[in-house]
Amino acid sequence: MAKIITQKNGTRKDVIIQKAAALYKSKSYTAASMRELAESLGVEAPSLYNHIGSKGELLEAICFRTGNRFIDQVRLISEGEESIVQKLEAIIRFHIRMMLENFDEVFVANHEWKHLQEPFLSDFLNIRRTYEKSIIDLIQQGIDRGEIKPLNPYVAVLTILSAVRGLEFWQRNKKNVSQQVLENDMVNHLLNGLTT
Amino acid sequence: MAKIITQKNGTRKDVIIQKAAALYKSKSYTAASMRELAESLGVEAPSLYNHIGSKGELLEAICFRTGNRFIDQVRLISEGEESIVQKLEAIIRFHIRMMLENFDEVFVANHEWKHLQEPFLSDFLNIRRTYEKSIIDLIQQGIDRGEIKPLNPYVAVLTILSAVRGLEFWQRNKKNVSQQVLENDMVNHLLNGLTT
Q: Is the pTM of this model over 0.90?
């Protein structure tokens, strides 16, 4: 029986999670089956159950792995010595890269979290709130220090996170724009605006 | 049998379209039925068929009415005498107001257009492309005149339209932010940035 092939630096479970994210994104969580996941891994379904209990367990893994990466990164950046604007820039760049380089997992965490069971659902929503709140707090600090305009911090975070999430549209029909231009121009726009 | 009540300045068909948009948004187009639409209008289904042939016809009406409002507005604004930045501001403000004041129809046009039949599907996608292209062209004009930074115009439009579309999240759990603050701060952010 075929073994699950691991990529370098990836555990067997990492590979399963990545394949599950690709499957849940293309078919939706509801429509995807463990049999299809086993097929995409090139193994028999019973062999897959040696590693993973259910498709719900994989959804939890995708959502929390992704959510925790965002939380950890924003915490790490917030603790640094840079200016608030530099911290905000680092957070936006990280978020854009996650949308570009870990798109399957971020997409599933953004769209399929509704299918999490309790207590995971509440925990995941807490992670999202914590993430948003961290950026709102950072923007408020920037306003207090005069680095950032006195805009409503909630509206600023909604604008930033929605713009970055819009990279979904770019992923769907990739235009003739490099990842580097996409990242630099979006960061520049969101921090410094369009006008000269 | 009950008559379909019209609001002032609204034709009977306008009322039907608005109720259909509310229903398609809350239940999804696929799950909604003409019977439910008739119920929400307080009429019998056969009476509804005097005005409308099918639920697909209503989806077409919602998508094209909304799409054409965007196209007409951007054309009208583009023809004016204002600066490019002023025109861009007017377009963003119009788009934000559509998201706030005609949310059901805009939401259905944004999410349920996939269910349009041909040739309506292609026509609708053409309207969307025309709309995006008009704003891309306007930004390019702004860059050529030195009013707008030399950012990639496609990325700028992606950033703007995604940010505005993010008002969906605000609609879901309205935070303690007025429509006026939402509109002014988002426009200011997208045109002039966050940094002081």
A: yes
